[in-house]
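job 3f2a | input accepted
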Amino acid sequence: MSTPFTHTAAPRILLVKTSSLGDVLHNLPVVSDIMREYPGAQIDWMVERPFAALPRLHPDVKGILSVAVREWRKNIFKSNTWEEISDFRKRLHAQHYDFAIDTQGLVKSALLMRGVNGLRCGFDRDSVREPLAALLYQRTFQVTKDQHAVERNRQLVAQAMGYELPAGVNYGITPPEISLPDWLPANAYVVLLHATSRDDKLWDEANWVALGKYLQQQNIRCLLPWGNALEKSRSERLSAQIPQAITPRKLTLNEIAAIIGKAHAVIGVDTGLAHLAAAMDVPTLGIYTATDPALTGLYAGERAINLGGIHRAPDVAEVIATLTRLTTAVKS
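job 3f2a | predicted structure (332 res):
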């Protein structure tokens, strides 16, 4: 595959993947692929403000161009909203890129990079999530839909920049080096990620309790983080029924990443934090009840395992048996 530019070994690239947490994580291997082909590349990332900490975990992401589209929509009539939008446009226009590549595939993301100085690339109309977005790119590329999101992102960028994809997936991130809280168990603990964006993705609370009691019998503490009031209430209900379980205070993204990085294992439903654990090479088990893990499930080699599927939730026995195999394999 021939490269579409020959004038520089250090191309400047803007990656556009604005949200959500899992989607942003699925784009991280693109950075590793680019740096393998072009070690001198300068890579910036456009991302929604709440997720800006994620691209920063990759040492080869040099600049963050944060946006706040969700907040802007809610406060469209406020003067400071338009000031923020104006500042964003100025910052975008001030940079020059060889490529601006939208792996989000939405009209929103395509519009956000309209003012960029650089070649705007994205999926073609048969590959993109929202076909109208393809009209806003200068170059489009066909990428098969029925494959995992990580591979779709990688293939789009490889085609746009003209390199062959390397074998294997490298997220390129490690847990942030920050001080861990005093309440974190000194011995083995498992992070239970019970919260997700849709009710049909939840795993029954009785299952979490049974799993937690089993782990406690193995001298493994359970940690149940949360992100909003509803999730906090669920964490507290579960902790009340699981001996020695911990419901922490609200954690920042960097704090939860550091805590996950030290965990014995992570067990979670279809949520971005489970993908974060897998990306950091922590033994991770994904529980799926309403989505197809073949397309958006954990994707990080043998240390990440998906269970269940659409209308096919795994039971507690299956989760325990799989966790045992996973952690035993890691030790060996």
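job 3f2a | The domain at 189-331 is CATH 3.40.50.2000 (Rossmann fold).
job 3f2a | closed
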